[in-house]
Amino acid sequence: MVKIEHRSSFLFGVSFLVAATGIWTWRRRSTSCTREIRTMVDALNHPNVHIKDRQHVNKLIQNFIQGGKQKLQVVADFDRTMSRFKSEEGEIIATCHNALDNNDQISDKFRMEATKLRDYYYKIEIDDSLSKEVKYPYMVEWWTKAHDLLVDCGLTRDMISYSVKRSNIVLRDKTSWLLKELHVHDVPLLIFSAGLGDIIEEVIHQQHTMYSNIHIVSNYMDFNNQGTLVGFKGEIIHIYNKNENAIHESDYFEKLQHRENIILMGDSLGDLNMADGASDSADILKIGFLNDKVEERLNVYKDAYDIVLAADETMDIPNAIIRQVLES
């Protein structure tokens, strides 16, 4: 009888210790989680963060945290979304299409013609007084002429790596953390870009790692057997036809129907359609980077995006939200 009581007391003591340890661990994790959420909330109150409907944003983030990483996927533009808009010195960062500007293997004529195209068409792209329907044919003209220039300049496959090294394209601050953590937690990342897929892959290879969870939809170059550019594969992807591309007709989003929580990141109004192929029941948190003409365009962006990051060259806000989902 004494032995039984002794054993019962021992088991009770162990059980109490385990329970107490569990409560302590839970409290520690809970405190840590609360601290992280508070940090995220503080970040959303930063002056460069603009939210029109905070209640809607809070609800989406709460749903994403409750759903966890198993229900999460990320869809992002590349140029001036995953890459910076300006350097720390205030220099404008190159996009994929002008990554060749500092390549001394390319003729001055190419650079001059490419600059003319950008100077003319970029003003149309960011003119919010014009509708997408009006801008559409201009964007087709711009991309067609830009691609023809690349073919005419005699670009070779070997020039791509050299061009990226010579360019000032750089991933937005803390993008490396984002890429690594999405890979570690097996969260799909769709990079949907009107830029050049070959350049995007090279930038990621040179500045981080091209992980298996990354899927890129973009304009890919077509090289002949000698490695010379002869054209482009498939239809042109420009800034305002991202809802018409073949990715929406493929089974990409269908395979990810269980990942019904989508974080979408872009820097233009055309990027808002990147996840159109997702299920109608999907929740989409839209984060917009407003890089240029902030005062003029802020209200338009606030109407379009859930969260607008004005003149912010970091991934701090998306990372803060994604961290909460991954750790939930």
UniProtKB/TrEMBL annotation:
Q: Name one GO cellular component term.
A: cytoplasm
Question: Mind telling me which PANTHER family this protein's record contains?
Answer: 5'-NUCLEOTIDASE, 7-METHYLGUANOSINE PHOSPHATE-SPECIFIC 5'-NUCLEOTIDASE
* One Pfam assignment: UMPH-1
The chemistry this enzyme catalyses reads: a ribonucleoside 5'-phosphate + H2O = a ribonucleoside + phosphate
Q: Which family does it belong to?
A: Belongs to the pyrimidine 5'-nucleotidase family.
Source domain of life is Eukaryota
Q: Where in or outside the cell?
A: Cytoplasm
Q: Which UniProt keywords apply?
A: Cytoplasm, Hydrolase, Magnesium, Metal-binding, Nucleotide metabolism, Nucleotide-binding
The name of this protein is 5'-nucleotidase
Q: What Gene3D superfamilies has UniProt attached to this entry? A: HAD superfamily/HAD-like, Pyrimidine 5'-nucleotidase (UMPH-1), N-terminal domain
Methyltransferase listed as a keyword: no
EC numbers on record = 3.1.3.5
Cited InterPro entries: HAD-like_sf (IPR036412), HAD_sf (IPR023214), Pyrimidine_nucleotidase_eu (IPR006434)
Q: Name one GO molecular function term.
A: magnesium ion binding
Q: What class of enzyme is it?
A: hydrolase
Quick check: keyword Metal-binding in the entry? yes
A Gene Ontology BP annotation from the UniProt entry: nucleotide metabolic process
